[in-house]
Amino acid sequence: MRELVYYVAVSLDGYIAGPGGEFDAFPVEGDHMAAQIKLFPEAIPTVAADAMGINQIKATFDTVVMGWNPYAVGLPAGMTSPYQHLQQVVFSRNRTEEDIPGEHPNLELTHEDPVEVVRRLKSEPGKSIWLCGGGQLATQLSGEIDRLVLKRSPLLFGNGIPLFAPGAYQPSSFEEVSTTAFGSGVVISEYVRRRA
């Protein structure tokens, strides 16, 4: 069965974005970048990967799920299908296709229950499913997350969008399987869910 992998950058104080959804404080230069590109080339927006000559081989992910806010980050720049090399599922309770200008290949906007959608995706053949964010969606899908890959940056945001939003979810135990510290100060840690 396919895994749901929550792969995300996070500050030392547990935020994946600032109060207004800002994420540009996360370092995009340094020795950690080569490791990220090697591990998860599919998690780079298609346009950026093309410009950098990165082959997005779908070694790990062939699908990405995200909330409206992470998706909408690229809209002002005309990026209506940020990961068009993947199947993209965007969850929103109140947005419609009319809120997406122009063409958006390989992208589905849905009002469906995220848990039901992810369970359906997991039952289908394919590679792992990348949970891109945000915190509200991560909370809704907390019981479905099989693996966490956290890119901890040496930053404090003080406020913003948390890794997991407050909500009703059961305590879960994860086991650390790897941690790599980079000269840039970024630490990438991977955890797998402990199964009963």
From TrEMBL:
Top-level taxon of the source organism: Bacteria
Domain Bacterial bifunctional deaminase-reductase C-terminal: 4-187
Gene3D superfamilies, per database record: Dihydrofolate Reductase, subunit A
Pfam families the record matches: RibD_C
InterPro entries the UniProt entry points to: DHFR-like_dom_sf (IPR024072), RibDG_C (IPR002734), Riboflavin_Biosynth_HTPR (IPR050765)
Protein name, entry field: Dihydrofolate reductase
Species of origin: Arthrobacter bambusae
